[in-house]
TrEMBL record:
Domain Glutamate/phenylalanine/leucine/valine/L-tryptophan dehydrogenase C-terminal: residue ranges: 148-357
Record-linked Pfam families: ELFV_dehydrog, ELFV_dehydrog_N
Keywords annotated in UniProt: NAD, Nucleotide-binding, Oxidoreductase
One BP annotation, GO: amino acid metabolic process
SMART domains linked: ELFV_dehydrog (SM00839)
CDD domains listed in its UniProt record: NAD_bind_Leu_Phe_Val_DH
Full protein name: Valine dehydrogenase
PANTHER family: LEUCINE DEHYDROGENASE, VALINE DEHYDROGENASE
Keyword Oxidoreductase: yes
Organism ancestry: Bacteria, Bacillati, Actinomycetota, Actinomycetes, Streptosporangiales
């Protein structure tokens, strides 16, 4: 059983502030809401609806994800702490109006300490249902005043991070003439391909879903397609952009990477601690995933104030500067960028969070 009171392995000072188990037997709701930190403001993070095999597995995931959101929100410059929720069950079978509304009542019961949004297994339409019971819901449909699909700004943000990496490695913030491999051309990946082609990059893609590949090829017949990740990382690349699932950088892939830069949307790209060092040892510049993929959370955070696309896009443009700051700090302190990013996030949580000590 994961120990809620144990120090987090990232080494940051604050531990999870609050972990709430929610149950409604009649609707079948079994959910856990974890608030890692409210140092910067109300915790913000999505609801994952997933068929966890055990309660322990669900708890471990929500503790991990909520801590990750605190770091992501801190470096996105948001006035939000980190939180996340998991609902245990198969969304295709177990999702119902009653279950989502029961969940909404638990979110509401936290009085705004936690704002929820979409994640794996939940969609904007589900957030509309949750919002019938709670004010603390974002990521809603456009029809209900929400901002809609967050992958638009996620892809834009990843592209900004990639420009920053290109400037650091090749001296100019453009991918023009570079060969970029995009693994996974789903909601984010196919939009990233648009930015890359517009910027003049050569693009190679792979996806397990034939339709996703065809959608890209229909618009860009010049894009090269390879069979799978293994083929992608071994082909001659300047940049590798993991935009499918997490864990693509591991003990097998890192030694054979041809790319000089890794920058993509997927969450948790590093399969385990220590991979960031192996990348640095091979002189591969890794743009930390949670920094460059924060365009989506920037969008849902903006929606809380009443969505303004231009304002949210302007903030997502800041991912370029933040990524450059991380690379600079990494060089100054002689650590991999993933470590530098964590340090910057912890610094902001501590410096800005401390201000709450000034009585108003
Ligand atoms: N959508 C967002 O706003 C957002 C925000 C932050 C992070 N992310 C992360 O970015 C990644 C992509 O998100 P998305 O919204 O585009 O998801 P998606 O499901 O729309 O796209 C993922 C794509 O990857 C493909 N894929 C799955 N396994 C693969 C494999 N082994 N090899 C190649 N392709 C594979 C899928 O077929 C799909 O086309 C995810 O890891 C997600 O957690 C997304």
């Amino acid at each position: 059983m994961p120990n809620v009171f144990a120090p987090p392995h990232k080494g940051a000072e604050p531990r999870h502030e609050q972990v709430v188990f929610c149950q409604d037997e009649a609707s079948g709701l079994r959910a856990i809401i974890a608030i890692y930190s409210t140092a910067l403001g109300p915790a913000l993070g999505g609801t994952r609806f997933y068929p966890y095999r055990t309660e322990d597995e669900a708890l471990a995931d929500v503790l991990n994800l909520s801590r990750g959101m605190a770091y992501k929100n801190a470096l996105a410059g948001l006035d939000h702490g980190g939180g996340k929720a998991v609902i245990i069950g198969d969304p295709a079978v177990d999702k119902s109006e009653a279950l989502l509304r029961a969940y909404g009542r638990f979110v509401q019961s936290l009085g705004g300490r936690y704002y929820t949004a979409c994640d794996v297994g939940t969609y904007s339409e589900d957030m509309d249902v949750v919002a019938r019971e709670s004010r603390f819901v974002t990521g809603r449909t456009v029809a209900n005043g929400g901002a809609g699909d967050s992958s638009v700004l996620t892809a834009f943000g990843v592209f900004q991070g990639m420009r920053a990496a290109a400037e650091t490695v090749w001296g100019s913030p453009t991918l023009r003439g570079k060969r970029v491999g995009v693994e996974g051309v789903g909601k984010v990946g196919h939009r990233l391909v648009e930015h890359l082609r517009e910027d003049g990059a050569e693009v190679v893609i792979c996806d397990v879903n034939e339709q996703a590949v065809e959608r890209v090829r229909a618009r860009h017949p010049e894009v090269e397609v390879v069979d799978d990740r293994d083929a992608l990382i071994r082909t001659d690349l300047d940049v590798y952009a993991p935009c499918a699932l997490g864990g693509s950088l591991d003990d097998d892939t890192v030694p054979v990477l041809t790319a000089k830069i890794v920058c993509g949307a997927a969450n948790n790209q590093l399969a385990h601690a220590g991979i960031e060092k192996r990348l640095a040892d091979r002189d591969v510049l890794y743009a930390p995933d949670y920094v460059v993929n924060s365009g989506g959370v920037i969008q849902v955070a903006d929606e809380i104030r009443g969505f303004d696309f231009d304002r949210a896009k302007a903030r997502a443009s800041g991912i370029y500067e933040t990524t450059k700051r991380i690379f600079a700090l990494a060089a100054d302190e002689g650590v991999p960028p993933a470590v530098a990013a964590d340090r910057l996030a912890e610094r902001r949580m501590s410096e800005i969070g401390r201000l709450r000590g000034i009585l108003l």
